[in-house]
Structure formats: C-alpha cells, structure tokens
Amino acid sequence: DDMVKVSILMAVYNTAEYLPQCLDSLLDQTMGDFQVICVDDASTDDSLKVLESYAHGDSRIEVISLAENHGQAFARNQGLMRAQGTYTCFLDSDDWLGKDALQQIVSAFEQDETIDSVLFRCRYYYSEDRIEEYPMPAFEKMEKKDKEAAASVDGQPVALSGEQAFELSLTWKIHGVYAVKTSIHLQYPYDDSSRSYSDDNTTRLHYLASRKVVSCGGAYFYRQHAASVTHQISSRRFDYLKANATMMAELRRLKVSSHLLKVYENERWKNVVGIYLFYWQHAHELADADRREGLHIIRNTWKSIDFRMIFPENKNKLGFLSCRSSLLPEGICWRLFRLQANLYFLLKRISGKI
Description:
- The chain is α/β, with parallel strands linked by helices.
- It folds into two domains: about 5-230, Alpha-Beta Complex (Spore Coat Polysaccharide Biosynthesis Protein SpsA, Chain A); about 235-350, no CATH class.
- Helices cover about 45% and strands about 15% of the residues.
- It has helices at about 20-25, 45-55, 70-80, 100-110, 135-150, 160-170, 180-185, 200-210, 240-255, 260-280, 290-305, 330-350, and strands spanning about 5-10, 35-40, 60-65, 85-90, 95, 115-125, 130-135, 160, 180, 210-225.
- Strands 1, 2, 3, 4, 5, 6, 7, 8, 9 and 10 form a ten-stranded mixed sheet that branches.
- It starts with 5 loop residues before the first strand and ends with a helix.
C-alpha cells in the first residue's frame, strides 16, 4: 500500500542549527510511509541549504521556498496544499519527534474510524536535564474512570467528543500538538489573519469538527527558548486579542452552543486583562506607534466584550471590573477600567506576585 499515511507540515525560518535534529527524528521513525513538506519562509541563514541537502538524500522530503517572509500560518498553508497523507500534522523546525511517534499516531487513528484527531504526548524541552510533560488530566481522569468501570476495551484509547476537546482547548487543558484527518484540515486551513497566535484558532476548529479526539503515547519534543514569540517583548503580543476576535466571530458563524460562547468570552475577557498587564509592564520598551496601536487593540476588545456572558468570578473583583456603564461616556469608563487595573497590578507587584 503506497498510500502516504501522514503528511508533516514544517514551516522553517532561520532554524538551520536545529534542522538536522528535527529532520533526523523523522528519518529515524519506526514507520516509513510519510511525506515531509518543508516550507522555507525566506530564511536568511543556511536553513534552505540544509533542507535541500536532506531532500536530495530522501524523496519523502519536499522543499518549498518562499521569496518573502509571510509567517508560520501562511507557510504551513502552502504545505497543506501539497498534503497527500490521510492524516496531517505539523512539526516546528526546532522541535523533534520520538522514534515511534508517527506509528503511535497512525495506530490510534486506525483503532476506530470515527477518531478524527489524535494528540501527541507533548514534552517541553528546556535542556537535557529538564523535560516536562504537558499535563492532560482530562484524558487521565477519563482513563481512570474507564478502568474502574472496566468499560474500556483493552487498548482502546479514551475518547473525548469534538465538543469536549474543543471546550478543553479553549483554556488549554488539552494542548494543541496533534494530527488530524487531512480532509478536516483542508476544510479549516490555518487562519493567517494575524501573524502570531492564530494557529490556536485552527487547532480548536479541528477539534470541534472531530467526532472523536484521543491522545497517544507518541512524543513530540517542544523546544522552549526565550526567542519564541510568546516570550518576546514585542507588539506581536497584541495580535493575541485580534486572533481571539477572529475566533469569536467564527464560533458565532458556526452557531456553537451558548455555553461554549460563554466559556470563550470569559477567556477573551481574561486575555484583555492579561494583555493589559503586558502593556502596563512593558509599554516603555515599545515604540510609540506600537504602544498606541496596542492600547487601541486592548480598548477595542474591552469594548467588544459582552459582560452579560462573563461569570461573576471573572468580573466582580479588582483588576476585572469592566467599569462599563450606559450612564457614563465611554472615555470615562475606559479610564476607570485602566485605573482599577493599574491599582490591581500595583498591589500584585508590591506583594511580589508579578
């Protein structure tokens, strides 16, 4: 059967030093019928050279070279258009897979044709002596309950419904490192509306579109380093709120239950406070235009939150008071919101919590 089982999408940008470890981990897999589509996003280091030398040595590795840098979502979508596998996953070019990861993924899918997404075992790699597994109590709890009820058929993975997995992913109680049936991925390609964070949206939509979601033992090693977007002091951080807005619009379009809308609106509100904290701590390190734009995005998001959907514990406390009122002009409400948030952050700083 020369059907490709798994297509691996790899967006590459200036990771020449990590690429050999990443690609070797694929060539070392216990399962051979896969396709690796590497998309070089206009790297300025030797990444493209490294990719081409690997592709020259193994026909399962394909290289697409982009003339200008577009960001990860765009790059992965270029790869997705060439995906021939039944299942598709991504592998970031500074990460790598455990030896049997793809085998485990495929075995999980093949146990039940209604399984549409399979999660890797995600291991955060800080250094050789510090590797931490991403905890997923949702799956563990279910496994335990199943064992107690002796309801699980031997070796059958514990399955979440798409809705359950989607809801858990809204607060990242389950992670977003997974493989999905290619047919679903093509229905929901990466959202490249913002350069950072919008792949979170795609993951959640894939879970939502899945009939069943399981996890397997295949390890994905996720390298942690200070250079990643989530650790940088950069105006890109404000993109998170834009990606949240796109997601909310998509959920409304898909007519998801009011419960899920509420859960997500609460996340969005917590993110407004979280990103405003980032602004409070780092505004002086940003360029003037970035600072203004950031505050503008925060204000617009604050204005767009439907506070009727916010749970009492997320709005009746200092730091999280909306201060929105139909009796006062919006500008005054915004200033009041900022004042109470600034006070909250200041108290947290004094008590050593931030």
